[in-house]
Amino acid sequence: MPFVAYVHAREPDRPEDEGRAPWEPDWRIWRWVAVAVALCCLAPFTAGWLKLGVVFLAFALCLRAASEALRDGDGLRDWRQ
Question: How far is the CA of 80 from the CAs of 60, 71, 75, in angstroms?
């Protein structure tokens, strides 16, 4: 009967988070969200292609904030067997 075990080695924290207490917000994420919200507030006052560009830029900034919040590593380069 094979024995299978999962061993979790604690990975070191990210060096940019060392000076931040656990309860403090990560301001790197919120700066992207704040700019995206400002662009969404600006979008109704524009027209045509400019409005489309502003909305796409706001969407791209939301994706940037999500990528900062959900750091997963380097994809397959981080894979170990």
Answer: 31, 17, 11
Query: Is residue 65, in this structure, part of any structural domain at all?
Result: yes
Q: Is residue 46 part of a domain?
A: yes
**In whole angstroms, how far apart are CA 8 and each of 11, 22, 41, 76, 80?**
9, 22, 45, 19, 13
- Specify the number of domains making up the chain: 1
Q: Taking the alpha carbons of 22, 68, 66, 11 in that order, is the dihedral positive or negative?
A: negative
- Which residues lie below 8 Å from residue 64, measured CB to CB, with a gap of 6+? 32
Q: What's this model's pTM, rounded to 2 decimal places?
A: 0.61
pLDDT tens digit sequence for 31-44: 899 999 999 999 99
- Helix 49-69, helix 27-42: angle, nearest 10: 160
* Residue with tokens 């900062």, as numbered in its chain: 68
